[in-house]
Design a protein that fits this description.
The structure holds two protein chains of two kinds. Chain A is mainly alpha-helical. Chain A folds into two domains: about 240 residues, no CATH class; about 100 residues, no CATH class. In chain A, a hairpin with a 2-residue loop joins strand 4 and strand 5. The longest helix of chain A has 27 residues. The radius of gyration of chain A is 21 Å and the shape is globular. The model of chain A has no long low-confidence stretch (mean pLDDT about 85). By secondary structure, chain B is an alpha/beta fold. In chain B, the strands form two sheets. In chain B, strands 6-7-8-3-9-10 form a six-stranded mixed sheet, with helices on both faces. Chain B has a four-stranded antiparallel sheet with strand order 2-1-4-5, covered by helices on one side. In chain B, strand 7, helix 7 and strand 8 form a beta-alpha-beta unit. About 5% of the residues of chain B have low confidence. The chains are: A mainly alpha, B alpha/beta. Chains A and B meet through helix 1, helix 8, helix 9, helix 10 and helix 11 of A and helix 2, helix 3, helix 4 and helix 5 of B. Bound molecules: adenosine-5'-triphosphate (ATP) and magnesium ion (MG). The site of adenosine-5'-triphosphate (ATP) has 12 residues of chain B, from strand 2 and helix 1.
Chain lengths: ~375, ~280
């Protein structure tokens, strides 16, 4: 049936991720631009982009459990850590002083997710007993337990101040950390990281989108909005909180493994409360209960230091060097960070994604934008 | 005997000091429209909470569709076919009307998180089938215009309908309606009354109706139970219950009491006024 453009005549079409052709074309164009950018970005920007993409996977994970299922978790750093160390143990060099099995990335990357997911499943029953702030406190405890384990388990982590090197990103014999060529282009390690991270994000993003647009995501939202009514609809609260924590931790595990692989080195003190808060900031600033929002938040937070750096060139009282000047770059960064969380919480609870939707709707209705 | 759907025997529910339900028992048959009335705080909502597993009575027994459901978790009772609307609307307010109604159909889906993530085959098929069923309900309740609206933004009367739709979406054997027309004008009340009668006649779903609107109850209920201070004081067909002296006392007593109270206050005020 032909009708006016945008008229939807089948449920299947109405329920699609991109219901209109325009949206499909835009997404494809965007993906293409991102892929092409990979070939031209400087190493520094490519590495940051790769980190942003990996962080976005972690942010989607946190958004699933907190934004959708409404279970506030301060324990995300713990699951990121489990992912990073699982990867390091499985993919690390054999024969050294530290645990290392020398396996390839196609094993250690999913395994990092799975081990973190198992940890999530172990933690989930707490969420069926505690709510809100109490749950937040207990998950905070997880971070402390994790920090303790990572500090003490020398043969895995190398211990404080020593640390260990990240696993080698070798995929079917191809080492991403070595300069290579692709379709006749020479690609640096950083550019290859970015390309790989984008592919992982694309896959994980679509899987998450599918999850949340169907039965399971609806049940998560129902539990977040009204858990008693949800249970009366037949939703098994314990089961769905378990699913939420398991999947969220799986995403965190993958993100942790990738992030520290890109950095090349794992310091046991990295997985602190601050890291958890950074992820909460990503989903608050990006947009709770939104996949695009998670990605926007992760990109924004990851590039924030670069933005402040740029500003320091123009704003007189921000100083690049650690001494002298009114404020250092890292101080500005922290202030901005706190300020942004507060501003978004109060002014734009839907986050960057909400702003984007409003801009889009404005132009959709243009010139009748009122 | 065979068409008995729900049997409640002598349930007793107490909260630290307050006895909300005191040995209450009743039965509901297949396809029946059973009403529960009583003054504020009589324990009507508490009965619903006991039936669908939000509260667990300390004594008594509840048998629903052949199962002993006392102490059962709420989601298990839902699986047996009990649905409900709430006195104070309890919709998922950040979701659309459509998603709320689809949540009513949660148990009609069988795919799990893995097929969900892939979203092919069974997951897709079930989503489309249930979408079609949800649309039937949206048509039935005449809320097509609000399909994609967030329920939190909708007027009260529409929210009440959506909540009815969400409960209907469960394809229940028994539907509990807690004051479905509270706060509605005459026209809205008539619409809801029509929906309730359609549900009974066309869908054959048994219902328990809690309602303060006496006219509505007397018009549409098959049988009525009257509660007062957590105790059952009468039960029967509406015309008989209406004439029951104890029921009249429970209802009118309230008015007498408040009138007495009022005149006593006036007298007291006059007395103090005169003394000064
Ligand atoms: N969770 C609770 N904790 C303590 N007391 C409660 C609780 N729920 C109900 N009650 C008490 O039980 C009694 C019955 O309350 P219920 O809500 O069942 O009355 P109701 O008949 O539905 O009244 P209304 O017509 O006002 O809705 C009241 O005295 C109420 O205070
Ligand atoms: Mg009540």
């Amino acid at each position: 049936m032909r009708g006016r453009p945008g008229l939807v005549t089948a449920y299947q079409r109405d329920m699609a991720i991109f219901p209109t052709n325009t949206q499909r074309v835009w997404f494809a164009a965007f993906a293409l631009v991102m892929a092409l950018l990979t070939f031209v970005l400087s190493d520094d920007l490519a590495l940051r982009g790769a980190s942003a993409a990996a962080a976005a996977v972690g942010a989607i994970g946190l958004n699933l459990v907190t934004g959708w299922a409404g279970q506030i978790s301060l324990g995300h750093a713990f699951f990121l850590g489990i992912g990073a160390y699982t990867a390091a143990a499985l993919g690390g060099e054999t024969g050294g002083p530290l645990i290392g099995l020398g396996l390839e990335m196609w094993i250690w990357l999913p395994a990092a997710g799975l081990v973190a997911a198992v940890a999530g499943i172990v933690v989930a029953p707490i969420a069926t007993r505690l709510r809100g702030l109490y749950l937040a406190f207990v998950t905070l405890g997880l971070v402390f337990i994790g920090e303790h384990i990572f500090r003490e388990w020398d043969s895995l982590t190398g211990g404080i101040g020593v640390g260990r090197s990240a696993p080698k990103p070798i995929l079917f014999g191809y080492d991403l950390s070595r300069e290579g060529s692709f379709l006749g282009f020479t690609l640096s390690a950083e550019q290859q990281y970015l390309l790989f991270a984008l592919v992982v994000l694309l896959v994980m993003g679509f899987l998450a989108k599918n999850l949340v647009r169907g039965r399971v995501g609806r049940a998560f939202s129902a539990i977040r909005d009204r858990d008693v009514a949800a249970e009366i609809m037949g939703i098994n609260l314990a089961r769905h909180k378990l699913i939420a924590f398991a999947i969220s931790s799986f995403y965190a595990g993958i993100a942790g493994a990738l992030l520290w692989t890109f950095v090349g080195f794992i310091e046991p003190r990295s997985f602190s409360l601050t890291l958890s808060i950074v992820y909460i900031a990503m989903i608050l600033i990006g947009g709770a209960a939104s996949i695009m929002g998670s990605i926007m938040g992760a990109v924004f937070i990851t590039f924030l230091p670069r933005i402040v750096d740029l500003l320091s060139g123009y704003v007189p009282f921000i100083e690049d060097s650690p001494t002298g000047g009114f404020l250092t770059v890292s101080q500005v960064e922290q202030i901005l960070f706190g300020l942004l969380i507060v501003v978004f919480l109060i002014v734009e609870p839907l986050g960057l994604y909400g702003i984007w939707i409003r801009i889009r709707n404005y132009w959709k209705a243009w010139p009748f934008s009122y | 005997m065979t068409d008995r759907l729900l049997t409640v025997t002598d349930i007793r529910l107490a909260f630290a000091g307050v006895v909300a339900l005191d040995d209450v028992g009743f039965e509901v048959n297949q396809g029946e429209l059973f009403a529960i009335i009583g003054p504020n705080g009589a324990g009507k909502t508490s009965i619903f909470n006991c039936l669908n597993g939000v509260y667990h009575p300390q004594q008594g027994s509840i048998t629903f569709a052949g199962h002993d459901i006392l102490g059962m978790r709420a989601h298990r009772i839902a699986e047996l076919g009990m649905a409900r609307t709430f006195q104070n609307i309890e919709l998922f307010e950040n979701l659309t009307v459509l998603d709320n109604i689809l949540l009513g159909r949660h148990l009609s889906f069988s795919y799990g998180p893995f097929s969900a993530a892939i979203y092919r085959g069974r997951a897709k098929r079930e989503e489309i089938e249930n979408r079609a069923r949800a649309e039937d309900i949206i048509d039935f309740l005449e809320i097509q215009a609000f399909r994609k609206s967030l329920v939190g933004m909708l007027p009260y009367g529409v929210q009440k309908r959506v909540e009815l739709g969400r409960a209907l979406a469960m394809d229940p054997k028994l539907l509990l309606l807690d004051e479905p027309v509270a706060g509605m004008n005459l026209e809205e009340t008539e619409d809801i009354a029509r929906f309730i009668l359609d549900i009974k006649e066309e869908l054959g779903i048994a219902m328990i109706l809690v309602e303060h609107d006496m006219g509505l109850v007397m018009d549409i209920a098959d049988r009525v139970m009257v509660l007062d201070f957590g105790r059952k004081i009468a039960e029967g067909v509406p015309s008989v219950v209406q004439q029951d002296p104890e029921v009249i006392r429970a209802y009118l007593g309230e008015e007498f009491k408040s009138e007495e109270l009022h005149s006593a206050e006036v007298e007291a005020a006059e007395a103090t006024g005169g003394a000064s």
